[in-house]
């Protein structure tokens, strides 16, 4: 994926899928499970000391090893522990980069990752983890349970958007000790939007999980099918969604992966089971991502007529690939790029296109949108997801472009891999959305996505079909049947 | 206003400061070049500049009858409009002043019952020598506009003994201004000078109106903004900011302030006073950095936009990007309120929406250092665009709130039929 331009705002460390291989090869040196544990410890209500604590408050609670403790003593001890933790959490926050988002992060993973080391082998309740709840995240739920709320006035999310999720940018030091180094790395990349597109995040996640599975050995007395998901996969998933709320495709894929794990016969030896899982992940990536992209690009390129004008919004790798493919098929067409002034990713696309000799008109904002749309013949939109009612979940601004296109009677083609389709339903953009972690105060605020109702989309191109957006729910059912 | 204080950048203030020291023609040429280079831009600045320059023409040019004056103003008006054809306010002021002159002239005709202002009347000698007793000094007018020194200096200029070498009549009683009460002199000259002062007064009134618009419009704020509302504003002008601040003094609501991300850094300074007044009264301001606003529309109750110009049909010229917002608001059935002074209400009826898109500086998003983009990509950056009438619910001017159907009435109240027909844009639109 050749893009040479440097993002003007943020230094992005190698965007796109290509970055995966490098990410997974180098184990990050700064993994410190111990300190990580300390920072986001158990809530004070659990009297059992965790492993991290003794160092933390060795001086404070003088007789930690006292054989018998009265209730009052226990309480006092718990209190002291709590204070120590608070102090630590504070220190961690101060040290942590990206200030504003951290206050919640300490508390965020707290309730979920409470399990002290000792309990490890004994199973713990798993079921209702919000891990695969996708973009809905858990901002609201966890907020209430923050043990040490230290909200800085700067970092407050405006009240009317408090239900939306936001990338927490969990620092590596606060990650659960069980998080695999590869996952740590991609989590950080996702947190800073180094891996941004839904499908790229999905691929990175799956590849990382493959690494996790490869390095896994079932402890004696357990079966892989029972042990892998709650004790190994879930911490990874929690960490990833703490770094940034998961997108729909990740939620879908993780559900699929858990299903595969649970299907494994307990009698199958470890190595074989792992091989089986890895190969099914590979097949999944091949089928649902790689092959899907090829098919969709092919179909989309066919939609681009010779001597036509194509309008696109921002930069989506699928749209980019489609345009390049159409060009390589010998079609002559112009491209109008409408860009989001805060992201300016359209400039990267513009550079890629002009390199191939495609004529490009670039508009940096939504000024005179109607007149731009009027000049176009078709509109190609990328997507972050599709709801089962046919609404498109796309980059903020997509809806405005689609509305303008509809006003002028232009065809709007949406490119979407089926893995991005969720069974959820959304009618407005504030049901599911994500807040940009750099802009989450009243001083500056930015939503990352919006929802385009199906009325404004002409055709949704997936690897299975090109159809009306309302037929997405049928697609979904078809996919479930085939699984 | 984009005019800057200090430095050497030409601005409206500097232009006005130097106005009376320059010959009229030089001022006209300077203004034309300032408008062309967009060193004076924005409807308020353009309207003020136009009013001032036309006042100079009325006051200092040598004209001997109404038609001569009308012709002169039309000529200058065309030049000014051609210099910045997207700014409808310039043309509006020109037309208002033309109408004003016609009004005053017809009154004078009735009053004096002379035929002195016949269209075909031959040029008469410069009235300056003879008209000294009827100094256009009008204390009542002065009192009403005493707040700004510049206009006073206009009067000083008119009463300048060099221009009007008079003898002591400067102190003559102020009541004797109307043409009827003048001493017996050359009736034509008398009328000319009386007309001159009447027209000058009229122009002063227009300038006052422009100045007062913000205050007058904001009095309607609490009618439209209610407690608990979510109000979306887009790059609010001073008028919109004042409107919000006024409403905030009575009610608590939330403002979604949409700013231009490329200028988000200095957005704080730009809207500092708005933040201050809003927060101090308990209202909320949320600065939004999105370009597409559809995502927020389910939360927004009202969209308030500042107009650059309003056409008779109800279309509005707005900052680029506002049309997409209004369209999104329409989608969710949110009401769109447009604020603008009556002087922005343009009788121009031959406007095409496309022609009202003003394309501006492309370096806003693509820097010139970015060679590959600069040389191969057609970069377009709109500055203003046209918002069709059906995307607007209410227009609030200094006269109150209007429905789209009422705009015609206001136009007929403020403009004369013959001036509406007058092709100001002939040159500009080719």
TrEMBL record, chain A:
It is found in: Cytoplasm, Cytosol. Belongs to the eIF-2B alpha/beta/delta subunits family. Residues 16-25, 102-112 have a biased composition (Polar residues). Keywords: Cytoplasm, Initiation factor, Protein biosynthesis. GO terms for molecular function: translation initiation factor activity. PANTHER family: TRANSLATION INITIATION FACTOR EIF-2B, TRANSLATION INITIATION FACTOR EIF-2B SUBUNIT DELTA. It comes from Xylaria bambusicola. This is Translation initiation factor eIF2B subunit delta. Residues 29-40, 74-84 have a biased composition (Basic and acidic residues). Coiled coil: none annotated. InterPro entries: IF-2B-related (IPR000649), IF_2B-like_C (IPR042529), NagB/RpiA_transferase-like (IPR037171). Residues 1-152 are annotated as: Disordered.
TrEMBL record, chain B:
It is found in: Cytoplasm, Cytosol. GO terms for molecular function: guanyl-nucleotide exchange factor activity; translation initiation factor activity. InterPro entries: eIF2B_beta_subunit (IPR051855), IF-2B-related (IPR000649), IF_2B-like_C (IPR042529), NagB/RpiA_transferase-like (IPR037171). Residues 107-141 are annotated as: Disordered. The keyword Cytoplasm applies. The keyword Protein biosynthesis applies. Transmembrane segments: none annotated. It holds the Pfam family IF-2B. Keywords: Cytoplasm, Initiation factor, Protein biosynthesis. Component of the translation initiation factor 2B (eIF2B) complex which is a heterodecamer of two sets of five different subunits: alpha, beta, gamma, delta and epsilon. Subunits alpha, beta and delta comprise a regulatory subcomplex and subunits epsilon and gamma comprise a catalytic subcomplex. Within the complex, the hexameric regulatory complex resides at the center, with the two heterodimeric catalytic subcomplexes bound on opposite sides. Belongs to the eIF-2B alpha/beta/delta subunits family. This is Translation initiation factor eIF2B subunit beta. It comes from Xylaria bambusicola.
């Amino acid at each position: 994926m050749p893009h040479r331009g440097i993002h003007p705002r943020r230094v992005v460390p190698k965007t796109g899928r290509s970055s995966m291989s490098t990410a997974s090869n180098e184990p990050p040196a700064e993994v410190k499970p111990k300190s990580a544990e300390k920072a986001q410890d158990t809530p004070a209500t659990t009297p059992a000391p965790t492993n991290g604590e003794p160092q933390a408050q060795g001086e404070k609670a003088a007789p930690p090893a006292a054989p018998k403790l009265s209730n009052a003593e226990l309480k006092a001890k718990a209190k002291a522990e709590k204070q120590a933790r608070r102090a630590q959490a504070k220190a961690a926050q101060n040290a942590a980069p990206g200030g504003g988002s951290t206050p919640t992060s300490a508390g965020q993973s707290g309730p979920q990752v409470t399990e002290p080391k000792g309990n490890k082998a004994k199973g713990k309740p798993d079921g209702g983890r919000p891990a695969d709840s996708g973009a809905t995240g858990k901002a609201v739920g966890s907020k209430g349970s923050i043990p040490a709320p230290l909200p800085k006035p700067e970092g407050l999310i405006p009240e009317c958007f408090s239900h939306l999720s936001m990338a927490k940018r969990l620092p590596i030091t606060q990650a659960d000790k069980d998080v695999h180094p590869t996952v740590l790395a991609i989590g950080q990349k996702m947190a800073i939007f180094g891996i941004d597109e839904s499908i790229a995040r999905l691929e990175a996640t799956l590849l990382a999980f493959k690494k996790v599975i490869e390095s896994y050995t079932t402890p004696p007395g357990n079966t892989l099918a029972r042990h892998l998901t709650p004790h190994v996969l879930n911490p990874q998933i929690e960490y990833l969604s703490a770094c940034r709320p998961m997108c729909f495709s990740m939620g879908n894929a993780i559900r699929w992966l858990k299903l595969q794990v649970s299907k494994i016969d307990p009698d199958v030896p470890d190595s074989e089971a792992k091989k089986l899982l890895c190969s099914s992940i590979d097949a999944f990536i091949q089928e649902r991502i790689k092959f899907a992209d090829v098919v969709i690009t092919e179909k989309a390129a066919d939609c681009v007529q010779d001597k036509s004008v194509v309008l696109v919004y921002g930069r989506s790798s699928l749209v980019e690939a489609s345009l390049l493919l159409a060009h390589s098929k010998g079609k002559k067409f112009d491209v109008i790029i409408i860009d989001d002034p805060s992201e300016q990713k359209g400039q990267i696309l513009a550079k890629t296109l002009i390199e191939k000799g495609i004529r490009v008109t670039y508009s940096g904002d939504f000024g005179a949108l109607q007149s731009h749309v009027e000049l176009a013949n078709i509109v190609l939109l990328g997507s972050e997801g599709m709801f089962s009612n046919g609404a498109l979940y796309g980059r903020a601004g997509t809806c405005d472009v689609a509305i303008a296109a509809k006003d002028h009677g232009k065809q709007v083609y949406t490119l979407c891999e089926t893995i991005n389709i969720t069974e959820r339903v959304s009618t407005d953009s504030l049901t599911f959305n994500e807040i940009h972690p750099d802009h989450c105060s009243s001083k500056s605020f930015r939503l990352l996505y919006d929802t385009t109702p199906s009325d404004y989309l002409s055709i949704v191109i997936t690897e299975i079909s090109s159809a009306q957006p309302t037929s997405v729910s049928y697609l979904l059912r078809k996919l479930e049947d085939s699984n | 206003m984009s005019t800057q204080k200090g430095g050497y950048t030409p601005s409206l203030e500097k232009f006005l400061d130097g106005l009376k020291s320059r010959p009229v023609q030089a001022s006209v040429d300077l203004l034309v070049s300032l408008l062309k280079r967009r060193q004076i831009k924005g409807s308020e600045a353009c309207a003020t500049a136009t009013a001032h320059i036309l006042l100079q023409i009325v006051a200092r040019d040598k004209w001997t009858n109404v038609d001569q004056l009308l012709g002169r103003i039309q000529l200058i008006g065309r030049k000014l409009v051609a210099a910045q054809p997207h700014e409808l306010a310039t043309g509006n002021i020109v037309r208002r002043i033309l109408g004003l002159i016609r009004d005053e002239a017809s009154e004078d005709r009735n009053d004096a019952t002379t035929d002195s202002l016949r269209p075909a009347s031959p040029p008469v000698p410069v009235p300056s020598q003879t008209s000294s007793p009827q100094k256009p000094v009008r204390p009542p007018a002065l009192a009403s506009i005493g707040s700004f020194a510049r206009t006073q200096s206009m009067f000083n200029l008119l009463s300048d003994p060099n221009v009007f070498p008079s003898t002591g009549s400067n102190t003559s009683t102020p009541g004797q201004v109307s043409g009827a009460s003048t001493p017996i002199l050359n009736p034509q000259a008398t009328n000319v000078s009386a007309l001159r002062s009447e027209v000058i007064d009229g122009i002063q009134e227009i300038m006052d109106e422009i100045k007062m618009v913000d205050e007058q419009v904001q009095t309607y704020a609490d009618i439209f903004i209610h407690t608990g509302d979510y109000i979306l504003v887009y790059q609010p002008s001073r008028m919109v900011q004042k409107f919000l601040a006024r409403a905030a003094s009575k009610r608590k609501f939330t403002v979604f302030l949409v700013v231009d991300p490329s200028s988000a850094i200095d957005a704080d300074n730009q809207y500092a006073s708005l933040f201050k007044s809003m927060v101090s009264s308990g209202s909320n301001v949320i600065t939004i950095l999105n370009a597409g606003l559809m995502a927020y529309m389910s939360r927004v109750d009202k969209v308030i936009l500042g107009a650059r110009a309003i056409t008779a049909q109800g279309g509005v010229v707005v900052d680029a990007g506002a049309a997409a917002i209004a369209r999104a608001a329409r989608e969710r059935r949110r009401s769109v309120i447009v604020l603008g002074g009556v002087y922005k209400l343009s009788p121009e009826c031959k406007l095409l929406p496309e022609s009202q898109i003003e394309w501006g500086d492309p370096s806003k998003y693509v820097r010139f250092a970015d060679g590959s983009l600069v040389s191969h990509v057609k970069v377009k950056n709109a500055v203003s665009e046209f918002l069709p009438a059906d995307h607007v619910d209410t227009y609030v001017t200094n006269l109150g709130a209007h429905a789209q159907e009422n705009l015609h009435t206001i136009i007929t109240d403020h403009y004369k039929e013959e001036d509406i027909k007058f092709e100001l844009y002939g040159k500009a639109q080719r």
